[in-house]
Amino acid sequence: MLRYVFAVHRRAWARQLGLPLTLTPELATAMALEVDPTPPLTGHPVLRDRVAVTFDDGPHPEGTPAVLEVLAEYGVKATFFVVGEQVVKRPELLRRIAADGHRIALHGYEHALHLRRSREAMDEDFTRGIAAIEDAVDLTPVLHRPPYGIYSPWSLQNARARGLNPMLWSAWGRDWRRFTTPNRIARRALVGIQSGDVILLHDADFYSAQRSYERTVGALPLILAGLKSGGLDTV
Question: Residue 220: which CATH number?
């Protein structure tokens, strides 16, 4: 069970469980991304000079619009892992995310640790979460990220059985914390950043420090500018 808890922190355990922390060829296929079929050295399809910027926990009535405005200003597309119970409350925000050309993915119907939930509860969570997205924007998600980045054996099996591709992360700003700043968030998100990385941020404060999304919005221009200066595009 420890492998499930710490997979996002230990690449070897993530590989054993088939939980990608970066943009793997399988994720690229699921996301319909163009890949380089003949890169040097590896001989495997890769995404050259591109990273994924992702947001969890929304949609939020203040955080999500503010994030969307920054992304539009920089011409960047991102992936939003949304929570079903929040989608039901504000489906118009999910429609705006889709209209702006961003990818919508599932974070669950409730933001709860999978290890504490029964098989039956997780089955219902997936069903309701997918339905919330389908009802709001008439699309079925193909990507999934569990709350806290932690699956249970049965929830991972359930996700895959539904055709959902797990996507964790390889870089994060730890922007959910109360005592942090936009500069710290940006530095953490960019340290060691390289092609294929997946950056985790949050556009909501429902499950984190109050108004934490304000610091995320402040950090986002710094992150996007840092990616550009490093020659990295976004997907």
Answer: 3.20.20.370
Catalytic residue, candidates 107, 114, 144, 202: 202
- Residue 37: pLDDT band (50, 70, 90) is low
Average pLDDT over every residue of 51-70: 98
- Annotated catalytic residue 203: no
* Contact in structure between 200 and 176 (CB atoms under 8 Å): no
pTM > 0.85: yes
DSSP 194-215: -TTBEEEEES--TTSSTTHHHH
Count how many domains the chain has: 1
In degrees, rounded to 5, the angle at the alpha carbon of residue 210 between the alpha carbons of residues 208 and 216 is 75
Give the C-alpha separation, 148 to 214, whole Å: 20
- Mean pLDDT in the chain? 94
Query: So what's the pLDDT on residue 44?
Result: 47
Domain of 43 in residue numbering reads as: 2-234
Active site residue 135: no
Summarize pLDDT for 136-158 with one digit per residue, the tens.
Answer: 999 999 999 999 999 999 999 99
φ/ψ (deg, to 5) at 44 = -115, 150
